[in-house]
Write a structure and sequence with these properties.
Layout lengths: L1 H19 L14 E2 L4 E3 L5 H19 L8 E3 L3 H6 L7 E4 L3 E4 L6 H17 L1 H6 L2 H11 L11 H15 L4 H5 L12 H10 L2
Parallel strand pairs: 2-3, 3-5
Antiparallel strand pairs: 1-2, 4-5
Helix pairs in contact: 2-4, 4-6, 6-7, 7-9
Length: 207
């Protein structure tokens, strides 16, 4: 009886996760109607592979050069339709990174700066760990992605423009060489800071 219950759980839990938490589908994108044309690129429409590959490689090279080496190239799923994007659990965003598991590009996310933005999120998860990245202040994780992806838009809607400005001020304060060292020390918003760099984070983020 116990073995039967365990077997049922082993079968039902993955099915439930697949159905209820669509973002988990990045782990097996072929089951979600896309084709993986390489180890790191999956496509809804394989005919657009050259375009996707060029965007991917530019973003990868750019982030490597500006922020440090990416240890594991992330899998990127390129959706050409909104239905494909929504099948992975996303709606309004142009693209989305799921921890260190992969990147999903929506139909309006096929731009170099969007790929760089998401590649930066992947690098954050690698350098900080997924949990620490998740706990870090929004102005850091999103502001960094907007600022260092060379997003060409001079104005961003709230709160993204404010986050970008906050990160740029912090980045000037800590410098490129101390970026990841100090990023690991950042506290979630509202917690008490202890070092001079933490103090900057706390005082600026809560304004």
């Amino acid at each position: 009886m116990l073995k039967r219950l365990l077997l049922i759980c082993l079968i039902c839990i993955p099915v439930a996760v697949w159905g209820l938490y669509k973002q988990a589908r990045v782990l097996a994108p072929e089951w979600n109607g896309v084709s993986c044309v390489s180890d790191v690129i999956c496509m809804e429409n394989a005919a657009r592979h050259p375009e996707a590959a060029a965007l991917y490689e530019e973003a990868y090279a750019s982030v490597n050069a500006s922020l440090g080496a990416i240890e594991n190239k992330p899998r990127a799923i390129f959706c050409g339709s909104q239905a494909c994007f929504e099948a992975f659990g996303f709606d309004k965003a142009a693209a989305h990174t799921v921890g260190g598991s992969g990147i999903v590009i929506g139909p309006r996310g096929w731009k170099d700066y969007y790929l760089r933005h998401e590649m930066i999120h992947h690098l954050q998860a690698e350098r900080l760990g997924v949990f620490r990245q998740w706990l870090s202040p929004d102005w850091f994780k999103e502001g960094m992605a907007y600022a260092l992806s060379r997003d060409p838009r001079p104005k961003l809607s709230a709160p993204w423009g404010r986050y970008r400005a906050q990160f740029e001020k912090w980045y000037r304060f800590v410098g490129k060489e101390r970026l990841w060292e100090e990023a690991r020390k950042l506290y979630p918003q509202g917690q008490v800071a202890t070092s001079p760099y933490h103090r900057f984070d706390y005082e600026y983020a809560v304004r």
